[in-house]
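FAQ

Q: What does a record look like?
A: Structure on top, sequence underneath. For example:
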């Protein structure tokens, strides 16, 4: 039989991105996760007692900036050309 009629073709599977892209993506995911971890907490044990720690610099400024930076890193990782040296 010829190869044309054979349904099992030898296709080489390739990934969409290169190794460098995936490394940068995982770094971006780590930065996003760090931002959300820094944003968490600050609640009070008693709902009738106000805890001013919820408005700290870490939760209001630093954590959202890290999340946005992580998303920017993800965009960079998608647009990065791994073949360019």
């Amino acid at each position: 039989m010829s190869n044309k009629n054979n349904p099992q073709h030898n296709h080489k599977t390739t990934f969409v991105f290169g190794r460098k892209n995936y490394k940068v993506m995982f770094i971006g995911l780590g930065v996003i996760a760090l931002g959300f971890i820094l944003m968490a907490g600050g609640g009070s044990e008693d709902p009738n007692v106000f805890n001013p720690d919820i408005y700290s610099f870490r939760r209001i400024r630093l954590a959202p900036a890290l999340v946005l930076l992580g998303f920017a890193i993800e965009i960079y990782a998608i647009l990065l050309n791994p073949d360019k040296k």
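Q: Is there anything notable about this one?
A: The chain has two helices and no strands.
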